[in-house]
């Protein structure tokens, strides 16, 4: 036993869908539960029953529990209660909520990742309806958005969220911490069908290999069949210089991202909207990703109120070769998705190129002129990629070529 009192969770006038739990272990006196909740009349008994069940599960005989509830769902209450217990008792037990059927899906290596919405891993109010925003991916963050003294709590909450929240088909990502803490984070998320792990502040291939090895060991231990992909995040000068080595360090890497807040801090410069100070880093990382055959992903845009500037940033990012970027607010999602998707002029141009090239091939020619442009295999490959993406996004009929002909 470590100490006798633990406090977990969050409380306050702005807190929603969470609770604060104070647990005191006692030598005798049995179990007492004091609940403060606006929904006590409706759900008070079920909340107390859940707390009692968890206490019994961990074999605690005497304790007092005080719950300040702000509309927390059962999986949140369970996470907060388990966190309090593990602060006081050495145990390997886990109180796992039901794994809902909607969360059983997998992901694909070449899935488009235009928009990835970051959610603080210790704030359940941000998680519960996140799937309704239609981001390509949801990132449950255990790193920068979580206070140091809350990181152990966040692990358990994120684990429960992976089991209980319906993310509506969005790719389920978790950003782990750095170093040994990050490797320990994996034990809380890998067994619960996480689709992709983000590796922050990555500076070498060696740490990627450590993450990969730890994931493999966990999958073997639990006999897991789910595929887990990796996305290193480059956030320092050293990381930029090693970006190609990092990008090709594992066959499970499907993308590599850049984090410009930490990168510019590492350089000792201010991040600007036009991005002059990060141009070298971004282009070098794009080349590294393309050379390794993976997706380059741009940094987040920090001004959540300026949609015009965001739109310009997305188009500039796409023009450089990026294939997506992070979001820190749901209102950014549609702007980013629309910006990275092929527009009508791109699709029309690609259709003309593909049809002209097919016609040339039928006539025995390998190169054909379309207006003032020469169309050869690389140009066609780029056009086919645009067509394929438009098809996946359902903005192009599957039989478009027959209609055009």
Output the keywords.
15 helices, Ribosomal Protein S5, domain 2, 4-stranded mixed β-sheet, elongated, 405 residues, alpha/beta, TIM Barrel, 14 strands
Topology:
Blueprint: E1 5-9, E2 19-25, E3 31-37, H1 40-57, E4 63-69, H2 74-88, E5 115-120, H3 124-127, E6 137-141, H4 151-164, E7 171-175, H5 179-189, E8 196-199, H6 205-222, E9 229-234, H7 237-241, H8 243-247, E10 255-258, H9 260-267, H10 279-292, E11 295-297, H11 307-320, E12 325-327, H12 333-340, H13 344-362, E13 368-370, E14 373-375, H14 377-392, H15 400-404
Parallel strand pairs: 3-4, 5-6, 5-12, 6-7, 7-8, 8-9, 9-10, 10-11
Antiparallel strand pairs: 1-2, 2-4, 13-14
Helix pairs in contact: 1-2, 2-4, 5-6, 11-12, 13-14
Largest sheet: 8 strands, parallel
Global mean pLDDT = 93
Number of domains: 3
- The CATH top-level class label of the largest domain: Alpha Beta
SSE run: EEEHEHEHEHEHEHEHHEHHEHEHHEEHH
Q: Give start-end ranges of low-pLDDT stretches.
A: none
**CATH T-level topology of the largest domain:** TIM Barrel
CATH architecture of the largest domain: Alpha-Beta Barrel
Q: What helical percentage do the residues reach? A: 40-55%
The gist of it:
With 405 residues, the chain is an alpha/beta fold. It has helices spanning 40-57, 74-88, 124-127, 151-164, 179-189, 205-222, 237-241, 243-247, 260-267, 279-292, 307-320, 333-340, 344-362, 377-392, 400-404, and strands at residues 5-9, 19-25, 31-37, 63-69, 115-120, 137-141, 171-175, 196-199, 229-234, 255-258, 295-297, 325-327, 368-370, 373-375. The chain folds into 3 domains: 5-88, 2-Layer Sandwich (Ribosomal Protein S5, domain 2), CATH 3.30.230; 101-340, TIM Barrel (Alpha-Beta Barrel); 344-404, no CATH class.
């Amino acid at each position: 036993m470590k100490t006798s009192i633990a406090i977990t969770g969050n409380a306050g006038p702005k807190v929603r869908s969470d609770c604060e739990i104070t647990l005191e272990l006692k030598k005798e006196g049995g179990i007492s539960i004091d609940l403060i909740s606006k929904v006590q009349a409706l759900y008070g008994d079920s909340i107390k029953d859940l707390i009692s069940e968890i206490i019994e599960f961990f074999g605690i005989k005497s304790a007092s529990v005080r719950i300040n509830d702000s509309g927390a769902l059962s999986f949140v209450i369970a996470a907060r209660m388990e966190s309090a217990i593990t602060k006081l008792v050495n145990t390997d037990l886990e109180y796992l909520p039901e794994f809902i059927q909607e969360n059983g899906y997998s992901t694909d290596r070449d899935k488009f990742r235009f928009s990835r919405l970051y959610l603080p891993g210790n704030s359940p109010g941000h998680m519960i309806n996140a799937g309704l925003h239609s981001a390509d991916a949801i990132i449950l963050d255990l790193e920068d958005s979580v206070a140091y003294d809350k990181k152990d709590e966040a692990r358990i909450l994120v684990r429960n969220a992976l089991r209980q929240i319906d993310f509506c088909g969005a790719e389920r990502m978790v950003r782990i911490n750095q170093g040994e803490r990050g490797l320990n984070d994996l034990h809380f998320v890998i067994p619960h069908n996480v689709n992709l792990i983000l590796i922050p502040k990555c500076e070498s291939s060696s740490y990627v290999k450590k993450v990969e090895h730890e994931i493999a060991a966990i999958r073997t231990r639990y006999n897991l069949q789910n595929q887990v992909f990796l996305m290193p995040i480059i956030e320092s000068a050293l990381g930029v210089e090693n970006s190609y080595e990092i990008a090709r360090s594992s066959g499970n890497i499907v993308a590599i991202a850049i984090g410009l807040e930490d990168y510019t801090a590492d350089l000792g410069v201010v991040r600007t909207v036009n991005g002059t100070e990060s141009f070298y880093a971004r282009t070098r990382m794009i080349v590294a990703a393309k050379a390794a055959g993976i997706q380059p992903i741009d940094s987040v845009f920090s001004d959540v109120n300026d949609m015009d500037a965001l739109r310009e940033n997305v188009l500039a990012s796409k023009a450089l070769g990026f294939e997506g970027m992070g979001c820190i607010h749901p209102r950014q999602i549609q702007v980013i998705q629309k910006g990275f998707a092929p527009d009508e002029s791109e699709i029309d141009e690609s259709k003309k190129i593909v049809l002209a090239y097919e016609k040339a091939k039928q006539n025995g020619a390998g190169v054909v002129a379309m207006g003032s442009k020469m169309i050869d295999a690389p140009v066609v490959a780029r056009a086919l990629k645009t067509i394929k993406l438009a098809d996946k996004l359902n903005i192009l009929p599957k039989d478009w070529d027959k209609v055009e002909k």
